[in-house]
Design goal:
three-stranded antiparallel β-sheet, elongated, 1 helix, 3 strands, about 15% helix, alpha+beta
């Protein structure tokens, strides 16, 4: 014989109250900290220059690094192209400026 089901009382949502303010200026978009400077030396590089990234090579890491470099160059207004490849001698990633 099964036990009779207990009736549950309906869950009542909590009432949340907000205070409405006037004349509060809208902060700028960068109010959370602004632009962070790029940690990679891409703005100082010329075509043919490269730098080594001290990370263990993985395909995923190479993709993330390539995206990071491309985004940083675009945000800084740098008209440059970069290539990320595995440096087989040290087993890490190397970034070259190619254009």
């Amino acid at each position: 014989m099964s036990k009779p089901k207990k009736e549950r009382s309906p869950i009542k949502p909590k009432k949340v109250q907000f205070q409405i303010d006037e004349n509060i200026p809208l902060p700028t978009r960068n109010a959370g900290g602004g632009k962070k400077p790029c940690k990679y030396p891409i703005s100082k590089m010329e075509v043919g220059h490269s730098f080594l990234v001290e990370k263990v090579y993985t395909r995923a890491r190479a993709n993330v690094l390539a995206t990071t470099i491309r985004t940083a160059a675009k945000k800084s207004g740098l008209k440059a192209k970069f290539s990320v490849r595995k440096d087989a001698d040290v087993g890490a990633l190397r970034v070259w400026r190619v254009a």
